[in-house]
Design brief:
GO terms for molecular function: isocitrate dehydrogenase (NAD+) activity; magnesium ion binding; NAD binding. This is Isocitrate dehydrogenase. With about 325 residues, the chain is α/β, with parallel strands linked by helices. It has 2 domains: about 190 residues, Isopropylmalate Dehydrogenase (3-Layer(aba) Sandwich), CATH 3.40.718.10; about 130 residues, 3-Layer(aba) Sandwich (Isopropylmalate Dehydrogenase), CATH 3.40.718.10. Helices cover about 40% and strands about 20% of the residues.
Length: about 325
Amino acid sequence: MKQKIAVISGDGIGPEIMEATLHVLDALGANLEYEYVDAGMVALDKHAELLPAATLEAIKRNAIALKSPLTTPVGGGFSSINVQLRKHFDLYANVRPAITFPNTRSRYENIDLITVRENTEGAYIGEGQTLSEDGEVATLQQVVTRKGSERIVRYAFEMARRIGRKKVTVVHKANILKTTSGLFLKVARELAAEYPDIECNEMIVDNTCMQLVMRPEQFDVIVTTNLFGDIVSDLCAGLVGGLGLAPGANIGHDCAIFEAVHGSAPDIAGQGVANPVALMLAAAQMLDHMEKLDESRRLRAAIVATMEAKDNLTPDLGGSGNTMGFAKAIASRV
């Protein structure tokens, strides 16, 4: 029996990279059925809302969604669709691996790390934003809870233990943000004691960024709060060749959404030159989540083999291929 997932094709280059990714999943024999739903500008045009109720219902019903990049219109009255999805489904864990791939423009050859980012609270959520009447003073409320800190840190340690990782680095700014970041660090220290088989170290966020650039091989799993995780995970993507190779998983207790973390790139939409690897790697994360471990292993291996062979690579990877040509080259190797 096929397992159904919700599919959000997205905006800009989204439909192109989604078509490419589903082509590879079908070639893989992943035994999936797709329920297509709308979000973003496509949904606004068709349904007069960015995130229709039918889309939310489909994600809830299937418990798993694969999502291409979405565009949130600029201007008042529109909030981030990604933030809405995370809050609606309480997708508290954002998991972003950064792995070195062959024939990229990366400066490094030995990076294999994962950033686990708290996804539902902290400064990034933007709660309590006010601007004084004279426009001179802006304020923002930042809320960090014991519950939120505990579940993300526990997720990081449990994931590390499950997949055989040896070290978790807790990234914070407790030296300055003594209450919010301080609470996160306090909880992390308490939980680390429950995992004596996993090395735990602590690092202030600014030093983390410097160390990632200087000696990224020292990191294995990074766990941190929402805003720091957003910044650090993009830095890690830069270490391995850019956002075109950066997948992301948003995990909750009842639902999970897997996505390419880059934008919708409207400047190249419709040209057939978009790199689909980030979404394919997100699909591999999805297969892991579904316990289709052989399929996820074969998908990643096929991506690596295709990049090693420089077979139909897209222009951002130094090739002259196109999106579907690249996908077909990967599909031939799965």
